[in-house]
Amino acid sequence: MTRSHYQDADKVKLRTTGELVSGGGLSGAIMTLLYVIIGIAFWSLVGFGLDKLFGTTWIVWVGALIGAFGGFYLVYYYMSQSNSDHKR
């Protein structure tokens, strides 16, 4: 690779996940899906651990609901931030 190729690569602007979600398109859809899946997975694991600790079986489901809500909330937050930026 030539030196100019590396210099051109340095000029590429990386986008945050919030920018991807608010930008829409395929990358926004994938990031939206990932927010929800990762939220469900993480909080389900927390609920699973609490179920094992307390000897219950229902906390994992509460964790999954909290994770789904949290993922959708993050998407809503980034979309509303994007809309307020466009109104200025």
Describe this protein's structure:
The termini are far apart. The chain is elongated and about 60 Å long. The protein has 88 residues and is mainly α. The longest helix has 30 residues, at 25-54. It is built from 4 helices and no strands.
Features:
4 helices, transmembrane, 88 residues, elongated
Provide a concise account of the structure shown.
The chain is mainly α.
What string, H for helix and E for strand, traces the elements in order?
HHHH
**Unreliable segments of 5+ consecutive residues:** none
Shape: elongated
Q: For this entry, what is the oligomeric state of its chains?
A: single chain
Number of helices: 4
End-to-end separation in angstroms reads: 42 Å
Characterize the main sheet. Answer: none
Mean pLDDT, as a whole number?
82
Name the beta content range: under 5%
Transmembrane segments: 20-46, 58-79
Protein name: AtpZ/AtpI family protein
Organism: Rothia terrae
Keywords: Membrane, Transmembrane, Transmembrane helix
